[in-house]
Amino acid sequence: MAEQKTQPTTQSVKAFLENVEDEKVKADCFELVRIMEKATGYPAKMWGTAIVGFGQYHYKYDSGHEGDACLAGFSPRKQNISLYVMPGFADNTTLLDKLGKHKAAKGCLYIKKLADIDQSVLTQLIKQSVDYLKNKYPEQS
């Protein structure tokens, strides 16, 4: 099996976020750390070179492919902030309709800034996502 590219590292989350050039995005990222730590119950940890993750689970697909991933996370990208909080929730239009200005893909939400979204709805999505993953993949690390 090929080695997974995105793995937990010892890189400092604070140092990574301090290097975000846009001051508003940087402030939003530090606030996301606070929100996600509280919602997941796990401390922030770097995954690879650009993802701030919270918690961890081991997945194994029917195809036999397996690996580890963070239960929730985010990454400040050039165009937006990618939030990794949606496995199994791409069709959850009830919460997504209440979230505010965002784009959604299969496993990600994309936002420009925290002020565009309802943070309490984001917290609900994070908690539901973590619960979903813990139930689907019960052997937690």
TrEMBL record:
- Where in this chain does the record put each YdhG-like domain? 26-130
Protein name, per record: DUF1801 domain-containing protein
